[in-house]
């Protein structure tokens, strides 16, 4: 059964890791929608008009590694508050979600705006401290010049902006399954999500 799985949550909550693992487990396609906003944010940093950048974005031009840093993340969160930018990225995400083979999308508004009809919705959280520690380890392992305090500030500033914006704010859909991963290993978090998806598949 081809399903759409929507995975939302704040920065560095583990939604990307979980989504990738779910996609591999069920042989579904995976779209990290944060990369779309990061790609537009990176263009803003280079002086481009964000709306033009969103309208002309080509998925094959997105270089995930180059986009995973705090400056681009902040710029992403700024362009993500522009309703026209979100609108310009909507059709691509919706078309991806309707793939025949099943799809996992992760972001902020997948369960609420992009795919309100998704068969499975997960909302992944973890405490600020745990998220900052994980992201710090990830970025410093890549050789980036980050501090634990700086990473925590980046996450909190983005979460605030993402939650308070008027259009498609970060929030759990009413029918989302909530998963706090603060005390969970990646394997345990993934196992719970696989079980949640299996429950829906078996019921359907
Ligand atoms: O996609 P999102 O920003 O929500 O987070 P992520 O990139 O999946 O996870 C951030 C970091 O936390 C990665 O380095 C993961 O390996 C790690 N992580 C973890 O240590 N424990 C978990 N339960 C989930 C993720
Ligand atoms: O991996 P992490 O959670 O740190 O960030 P991301 O998922 O790559 O998203 C970067 C930024 O893009 C977020 O802070 C949001 O402002 C924005 N975003 C959004 O508004 N809606 C989405 N569906 C995904 C990302």
TrEMBL record:
| A Pfam family this chain is assigned to | Cytidylate_kin
| Stored CDD domains | CMPK (cd02020)
**Where along the chain is ATP bound?**
9-17
For the Cytidylate kinase domain, which residue ranges apply? 5-47, 59-197
Q: Name one GO biological process term.
A: pyrimidine nucleotide metabolic process
A Gene Ontology molecular function term for this protein is: ATP binding
Keywords attached to this entry: ATP-binding, Cytoplasm, Kinase, Nucleotide-binding, Transferase
- Give the matching InterPro entries: Cytidylate_kin (IPR003136), Cytidylate_kinase_dom (IPR011994), P-loop_NTPase (IPR027417)
Report the EC code(s) recorded for this entry. Answer: 2.7.4.25
Q: Which domain of life is it from?
A: Bacteria
Can you say where in the cell this protein is located? Cytoplasm
Q: Which reaction does it catalyse?
A: dCMP + ATP = dCDP + ADP; CMP + ATP = CDP + ADP
Does Thylakoid appear among the keywords? no
Q: Name one GO cellular component term.
A: cytoplasm
Homology family: Belongs to the cytidylate kinase family. Type 1 subfamily.
Output this protein's name: Cytidylate kinase
Q: Which organism is it from?
A: Halocynthiibacter styelae
Q: What is the organism lineage in this UniProt record? A: Bacteria, Pseudomonadati, Pseudomonadota, Alphaproteobacteria, Rhodobacterales
């Amino acid at each position: 059964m081809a399903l759409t799985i929507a995975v939302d949550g704040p920065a560095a909550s583990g939604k990307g890791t979980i989504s990738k693992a779910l996609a591999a487990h069920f042989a579904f396609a995976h779209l990290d929608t944060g990369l779309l906003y990061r790609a537009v944010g990176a263009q803003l940093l280079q002086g481009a008009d964000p709306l033009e950048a969103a309208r002309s974005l080509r998925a094959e031009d997105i270089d995930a590694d180059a986009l995973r840093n705090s400056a681009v993340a902040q710029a992403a969160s700024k362009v993500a508050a522009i309703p026209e930018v979100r609108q310009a990225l909507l059709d691509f995400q919706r078309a991806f979600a309707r793939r025949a083979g099943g799809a996992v999308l992760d972001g902020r508004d997948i369960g609420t705006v992009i795919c309100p009809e998704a068969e499975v919705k997960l909302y992944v959280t973890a405490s600020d401290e745990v998220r900052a520690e994980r992201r710090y380890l990830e970025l410093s392992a890549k050789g980036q010049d980050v501090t634990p305090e700086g990473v925590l500030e980046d996450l909190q500033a983005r979460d605030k902006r993402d939650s308070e914006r008027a259009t498609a704010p970060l929030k759990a859909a009413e029918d989302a399954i909530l998963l706090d991963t603060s005390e969970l290993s990646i394997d345990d978090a993934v196992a719970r999500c696989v079980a949640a998806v299996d429950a829906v598949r078996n019921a359907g």
